[in-house]
Amino acid sequence: MKRFHIALAVDDLQASIADDDRRLGQPASVIVPGHFAMWRTELLNFSINQQPGQGGRLRHVGFEVDGVDGFSSEADINGLAWELFSASEQDARILQMYGEPVRN
To answer: Which residue of 39, 92, 103, 104 has the smallest Cβ count within 10 Å?
Structure first.
């Protein structure tokens, strides 16, 4: 499976989770209160980080790919960060950065 990944900054995590649940037609797969939420759909890995004053800012893009070892990140010609990772690698990084999610 290959999913496109997009990560955005949001001002208000709770309000954004409610809005994105509605837009994506499903509840978040992972929520770390006060910090982070993520949705995995069939084609998309979409995440948001609470960063007051920076709402709507694109943080990075990339791909979640089954079977990829590790995690990589590189900037494209425009300076935009592109990441490549597996679902299990992203889950491990979420746990390391934020602690145990409330829903996974």
So the answer is: 103
